[in-house]
Amino acid sequence: MLDLLFTGAAATSRTEKLQEMVTANLANAGTPGYKGRIGSFEAVLVSRESATTAAALKPAIGTDFSPGPLVETGSELDFALPDEGFFVVQTEGGTRYTRNGSFTLDSEGQLRTRAGHLVLGDGGPISLDPRRGRLKGTDNGLLFQGEAQIGALRIVKFDDPQKLLRESDSLFASAPGQVEGALAEPQVRQGFQEKSNVDLMQELVGMLTLQRHLDTSHRIVRIIDRTLNSVINSPG
After folding, report:
1. Measuring CA to CA, which residue among 99, 80, 84 is closest to residue 190?
2. Are the C-beta atoms of 227 and 233 separated by less than 8 Å?
């Protein structure tokens, strides 16, 4: 009976974790470059204080790195990666990686993300001179103002992007020992935004399904709890 109670409580916990995942996806369905969280179950042995074990399922949360749809914005500061790769930015915590190429300029003419992080090129932060005219990017990430090349977007890849550590809705850090690699022929689209790759309808259906599972788990726990109380409090 106690094993059943523990299993019901574990089911409730893992379902709530998956609900948090779906909620994050729904909240970021409109975030440029957002990569959806994906959940799966893996069998694990969960130890208990009684030193016994019970089979349980633990949600493993990963990331769907498939490209999102590209939408034309016409902005010279918007860049999108139609295939693999990440833009490289500089944060207070160090080098980070993002698929969100919706950039802006600060008061000093430096290219930054909307969150304020410096966008890095092959030679470091990218700076624009307003006297040179509009920014022009090529399909392989080179940046020009007028006839002068001012740099190139630094675009990298990872052999196993699932190891990347998500720090925010569209910002990732490399895992210890994980090494970035340069893209030999990066593909870049200026004047486009990569939209979130979240399937809104699929997430809504998933949320409804998880809510039904959660309701079922709650009912099981309540039934077992009432049964245990009845057994404990019964005469003899």
Report:
1. 80
2. no
d(CA 2, CA 21): 29
Count of Cβ atoms closer than 10 Å to residue 21 Cβ: 20
Say if CB 113 and CB 99 are below 8 A apart: no
Query: Measured between alpha carbons, how far is 134 from 2 in angstroms, rounded to an integer?
Result: 69
What six digits make up the tokens of 66? Answer: 């498939």
What is the distance, to the nearest Å, from the Cα of residue 103 to the centroid of all Cα atoms in its chain?
A: 19
> CA of 130: how far to CAs of 5, 109, 110, 127, 134, in Å?
67, 8, 11, 10, 8
pTM, to two decimals: 0.78
53's enclosing H/E stretch is: strand 53-63
Structure tokens belonging to residue 220? 């099981």
Amino acid, res. 8: G
> What is the amino acid identity at position 139?
D
φ, ψ of residue 114 in degrees (nearest 5): -65, -20
Query: Which tokens go with 135?
Result: 């920014």
What token pair was written down for 209? 């399904």
The predicted-structure confidence for 189-202, as pLDDT tens digits, reads as follows: 999 999 999 998 88
Rg from Cα positions in the chain? 24
d(CA 50, CA 85): 48
Cα(109)–Cα(184) distance, rounded to whole angstroms?
28
Tokens standing for 218?
């709650």
Q: What are the tens digits of pLDDT across the range 161-184?
A: 999 999 988 899 999 999 999 888
Residue ranges covered by each domain of the chain: 2-65+197-233, 70-194
Q: Is 160 helix (H, G, I), strand (E, B) or coil?
A: coil
